[in-house]
Write a structure and sequence with these properties.
Layout lengths: L22 H4 L6 H13 L2 H7 L2 E3 L6 H5 L5 E3 L4 H12 L8 E4 L12 H6 L3 H17 L4 E2 L23 H18 L2 E7 L18 H8 L1 H8 L4 E4 L3 E2 L2 E2 L4 H11 L5 E3 L7 H5 L5 H11 L9 H11 L5 H18 L19 H14 L1 E5 L12 E5 L6 H5 L14 H12 L2 E5 L12 H10 L2 E7 L20 H10 L4 E6 L7 H6 L2 E4 L7 H9 L62 E9 L8 E10 L5 E11 L10 E10 L4 E9 L5 E2 L5 E3 L2 E8 L6 E7 L3 E3 L9
The protein binds beta-D-glucopyranose.
Organism: Methyloraptor flagellatus
GO molecular function: beta-glucosidase activity
InterPro entries: Cellulose_deg_GH3, Fn3-like, GH, Glyco_hydro_3_C, Glyco_hydro_3_C_sf, Glyco_hydro_3_N, Glyco_hydro_3_N_sf, Ig-like_fold
């Protein structure tokens, strides 16, 4: 399992120049004549070997040979996170014949040294401004050590929680996913590094949720659901794209000329570069579309892959293919130009490299920690709170904390930890201990079992502690290594013996608060019926323990919402809110679209999450969009905090196109706003939907908003009630779907 959870100490640190490429510099089509001229001049001087070097990525290891950098045979390098090592390698690259700097990259997925909640958690914040801010921190810390580029964000839409990589994305919804893609790319750029949107495309629809498996997605669905987050990310300045491992409709994504060349490069005008995924070029042989290494290299290159991530195939195979006339030099030059364009736009040729000695001061700063703590609070979803058990009442003086994860920094950090360290992480145990001593609580801790919970040895002790307490906090769920790449599951309950432990704790009769660590929605059907309070904490990051404690003790009210439907049973999967209607909607009738052994409804719907306060909506006013390209649907509503605590509501607007030329989803999220309200406060909120968000792609191509009736639903989750509708007298056609942009 290559989970890249490096806990490598950052020994010598640096103050780097923070790069802020302007929107103009990184916008597709925003070609800069000066840069293009410099590229021409450079390409003219390059040997084939040097060109192929730019098209090959190296991997850092302690025994990395500086000659690779000095001889110009790698254009980029992954996985170095030590500023001194990075500086040395960069200096070697600058000594190469043409002095082309190396693009330094890493998997900075949810932070570099300071970890923020994992991406699925960040999506649960429903707060693009916060996501942008945390990405900015990730970018700043990365830039400080000499990195330029992250292999993130993952913008794969997924409706299948069996797929372990849902932890790296924004969940099931195309609009939320597009907003999160744009927010991350923008924040990373503001922090000083560029993003690589991945995995292009359809990887999140792996059949049966099994990683790397094939996907079958009709082209219109691909355009309506899976492509828009990439488009939004590119519009926000995403500089590179990573091709996926999966086969899409029979053609591996890494050899897919239609998605890579036609859609991405021609239709969208993307002029950055496409990188393969790890070994995804050579795997074309295993996919059965290439009979040799040479054929694999040729297919990937000619489909549109510009850089070989694993490094050797392009270098080894392309010289002979060029010689034999199978690969035109023009295509090689195009790939090289794309790489150089990204480097020039970043200013790599013109600015000094960061001083490695100055990095330390920029890592894990108090301000970054504060942002991480705030982010943790904003991403934890309150699923259940019977009898307002939470926040903890002062009378619950004796608290029994149970669960291996509570004391395990890795579970708080989550997978893809970049350069984060366990010792910097505030665990739930540490945070609650600090609270307990300050607040006069008696806190006891019994592990019960380790985070994987394969043994029941500690159960009796944990149950004993629980029986002696006023309240039990059980921290259970998926250990960090059960989420991310290569972690598909067929069962979505609590792993191993955890369910047994939970049932024994509940059987003590003491009130139990369940805090769940997870990288995906799990099917916690028993807990949803028997445990009075459930906080879904994902992997909350470096300040995760503090964030959890803040919510448990009521310093803040939970405000996150599920970015993915939580199933009752694995058999319901794929279960997602914006499905198409059927000819036989579910009724009591046997011959309707339903199960005979389970409800259709999920355990918790998309967009769902509770608060410690209550919100009420009134005076909804709908203004229909003008039926032209500038039209905007406006829905205004008064939101009131009718409870006794401050809180944040996520107002969600869903729209349904009632009758169209193609069946349309029963509703789709079109806008949302997170609103902070003091007790008794109310505010007029206006949600705006540009009319182009109301359209869809036609089978024969093209994108249009069709005339007719649209229904509007407004509320706190995807079951929001209908509040009215509007009529579009005429339709609006677009040459292509415009990308979603941050407001
Ligand atoms: C993953 C990518 C990752 C790459 C480099 C691959 O296995 O699919 O998401 O960026 O490894 O570490």
């Amino acid at each position: 399992m290559r989970l890249d959870f490096s806990l490598v100490a950052v020994a010598v640190l640096s103050l780097s120049t923070v790069v802020q490429p302007s929107a103009q510099e990184t916008r597709p089509g925003g070609a800069d004549a000066g840069i293009e001229r410099r590229i021409d001049a450079l390409v003219e001087r390059m040997t084939l070997e040097e060109k192929l070097g730019q098209m090959s990525q190296g991997g850092w290891a302690p025994d990395f040979d500086l000659k690779e950098a000095e001889s110009g045979i790698i254009g980029s390098l992954t996985n170095a996170d030590d500023p001194a090592a990075i500086a040395k390698i960069q200096a070697a690259a600058r000594r190469s014949r043409l002095g082309i700097p190396i693009l330094m990259t890493h998997n900075v997925i949810h932070g570099f040294r300071t970890l923020f909640p994992v991406p699925i958690g960040m999506a649960a914040s429903f707060d693009p401004a916060l996501v942008r801010e945390t990405a900015r921190w990730a970018g700043r810390e990365s830039a400080a050590v000499g990195l330029h580029w992250t292999l993130a964000p993952m913008v794969d839409i997924s409706r299948d929680p069996r797929w372990g990589r849902v932890v790296e994305g924004a969940g099931e919804d195309v609009f939320l996913g597009s907003m999160m893609a744009a927010a991350q790319v923008t924040g990373l750029r503001e922090g000083g590094i560029i993003a690589s949107l991945k995995h292009y495309v359809g990887y999140g629809a792996a059949e049966a949720g099994r990683d790397y498996n094939s996907t079958s997605i009709p082209p219109v669905e691909l355009r309506d659901i899976y492509l828009p987050p990439f488009h939004a990310g590119i519009a926000a300045g995403g500089a590179t794209i990573m091709a996926a491992f999966n086969a899409l409709n029979g053609t591996p994504a890494t050899a897919n000329r239609w998605t890579l060349d036609q859609v991405l490069k021609r239709e969208w005008g993307f002029d950055g570069f496409v990188i393969s995924d790890w070994d995804s070029i050579i795997e074309l042989m295993k996919h059965g579309v290439a009979g040799s290494r040479a054929e694999a290299a040729e297919k990937a290159l000619m489909a549109g892959v510009d850089v070989d991530m694993a490094g050797e195939l392009f270098r080894d195979e392309l010289p002979a293919l060029v010689k034999a006339g199978r690969v035109p030099m023009a295509r090689i030059d195009d790939a090289v130009r794309r790489v150089l364009r990204v480097k020039f736009r970043l200013g790599l040729f013109d600015r000094p490299d960061p001083d490695p000695a100055a990095a330390d001061a920029q890592l894990l700063t108090p301000a970054a920690r504060e942002a991480a703590r705030r982010a943790a609070r904003e991403t934890i979803v309150l699923l259940r709170n019977d009898g307002d058990l939470l926040p903890l009442a002062p009378k619950a003086k004796r608290i029994a904390l149970v669960g291996g994860a509570a004391a395990d920094p890795s579970d708080h950090m989550g997978s893809w930890g970049a350069a984060a360290r366990q010792g910097d992480t505030v665990t739930t145990l540490a945070a609650l201990q600090a609270r307990a001593s300050a607040g006069g609580y008696a806190l006891t801790y019994a592990r019960g079992c380790a985070d994987d919970c394969t043994s029941t040895e500690g159960f009796d002790e944990a149950v004993q502690r629980a029986s002696e307490a006023d309240l039990v906090i059980a921290v259970l769920g998926e250990p960090w290594y059960m989420t991310a790449e290569g972690t598909s599951r067929t069962r979505l309950g609590l792993p191993n013996r955890q369910q047994e432990l939970l049932e024994r704790l509940v059987a003590t009769g003491k009130p139990v608060v369940l805090v769940v660590f997870a990288g995906r929605p799990m099917a916690l059907t028993w807990a949803a019926e028997h445990v009075p309070a459930i906080l879904y904490a994902w992997a909350p990051g470096t300040e995760g323990g503090n964030g959890i404690a803040d919510l448990l003790f009521g310093d803040a009210s939970p405000s996150a919402r599920l970015p993915m439907t939580m199933p009752r049973a694995v058999g319901q999967i794929p279960v997602y809110y914006d499905h198409l209607p059927t000819g036989r909607p579910a009724t009591d009738d046997r011959y309707s679209s339903r199960y005979i052994d389970e409800e259709n409804a999920p355990l918790y719907p998309f967009g769902y999450g509770l608060s410690y306060t209550r919100f009420a909506y009134s005076d909804v006013a709908i203004t229909a969009p003008k039926p032209d390209r500038e039209g905007v649907l406006e829905v205004a509503v008064t939101v009131a905090n009718t409870g006794a605590r401050a809180g944040k509501d996520v107002v969600q607007l869903y729209v349904r196109d009632l009758v169209a030329s193609r069946s349309r989803p029963i509703r789709q999220l079109k806008a949302f706003d997170k609103v902070a309200l003091a007790p008794g406060e109310s505010r007029r909120v206006t949600l705006r939907v540009p009319i182009d968000r109301l359209g869809f792609h036609a089978e024969e191509g093209g994108y249009q908003v069709e005339p007719g009736r649209f229904e509007v639903y407004l509320g706190g989750d995807s079951r929001a009630p209908m509040v009215g509708g509007f009529e579009l007298p005429t339709g609006v056609d677009y040459p292509g779907a415009p990308p979603v942009r941050l407001d």
